[in-house]
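hey so u asked for the seq, here:
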Amino acid sequence: MAGHPVQNYANHKTFDNSLYVIALLDLAAIFLALTGIYFGAAFLAAAIICVAVSVIVVLYRLRAYAVRVQDRVIRLETRLRLERVLPETLRARIPELTLPQLIGVRFASDAELPDLVAKVLAENIATADAIKRLVKHWQADYLRV
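ran it, structure tokens below
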């Protein structure tokens, strides 16, 4: 994928560093709450702020994880659909489609899909939004979050 280093055994594992932020905020909240029991409300307020920030970070990361999983499913689902619908000449070019292009063409009906994919590849239309604007017979996706 564009923008990512070439993946190999040494760098294939990833870890979300925001998990450290969440853990540190939660530890700080516990410390501040315990301190607040002895020294006053200011420490309890700081503990509540730490918990609130932690919850915001968790919610943001959960959304990001859901979108990433959906993008992977969309990529697989659309590639399978293209294998079924496209003529042989275009079928060989499916690997050339980027994720934004796959996201864009997936809304096209089966009838218009071959022409749309050919146009996207020929004109190198890169954004999902630009491709979606070309769709004439929309195939809805009510499950996207």
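Residues 76 and 103 are 11 Å apart (CA to CA). The chain has a mean pLDDT of 88.
lmk if thats what u needed
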